[in-house]
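Our consortium's second objective concerns turning raw sequence data into structural hypotheses that experimental partners can test. To show how far this objective has progressed, the report includes one record in full. It was chosen at random from the queue rather than selected for favorable results. The single chain below, 285 residues long, was entered without modification.
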Amino acid sequence: MISVKKLSFSYPKKPWLCEEMDLELSEGKIIGLLGLNGAGKSTLMRLMAGLLKPVSGEVSFEGGATFDRSIPFLNQMIFVPEKVSVPEFLKVKEYSSVYQDFYSGFDLDRFEKLLSEFQIIGNQRVSNLSYGQQKKLQIAIGLSTGAKLLLFDEPTNGLDIPSKSTFRRVLSGSLQEDQTMVISTHQVKDIENLVDQIIVLDEGKVKLHADLEELENQFVFSQGPQAPDQAVFVESHLLGAQYIVKQPYGERNSGGSPDLELLFNAVIAGKLAGEFLSTQNQATS
């Protein structure tokens, strides 16, 4: 689907945001893209969308460079940026018709259902919608295009709590086998129990790219009055500690769903990525 090979990118006179980066994203996955502010999440999304040109290396979609912005690629990719820019005079349904004309797989029935879910009226002017409603409109359009590659940058920013719940509900189980969705966010809790894979960026590198199911099988994410001595990573709090330990050899599926915030903090602290990669190497050697 998406292949990133030896990708390097920086803005003029700025540090590298991507440096010799390699990634392979497969179909049928919802992927959470995490990183500290300024880690390059939005930049990587724009490189995937073909909006930025790599300094070196390549980003390709089904064999073609994304920066070429070919019509077949654009017809199969939708990028929903964090900050939306909307037309001043068009109504919601007039605005959506622009996307219907371009995306051959646009599902109008699904779009209208999503408008209802998000409580958006089709004859409203887009410019009269609140920021949160404009975000929900863009999400509804993105999910209705039928595109194979969906890139959502901070989609839950500006959404209230009920809208975040609706976003998770409509997204859960909605991805087709030939689709891939990448969600860039710093609001980790918003994508828990939603994503299949996680990517953590730090210092221009991919510090972790893993299936959550595999992490779940190899590590236990837990909490208690005190962390065990063999814990890979520990965060103390007033009532005790949250911690990650290796799954006992030969045991699987006893760890429960990974705590993404704890996972992210462990990777940024350099406590988990090496551990996980070493177990992966042992498993494949």
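The partners drew two points from this record. Residues 2-203 form a domain with the Rossmann fold fold (CATH 3.40.50.300). The mean pLDDT is 87. Both points have been shared with the crystallography group to help prioritize constructs.
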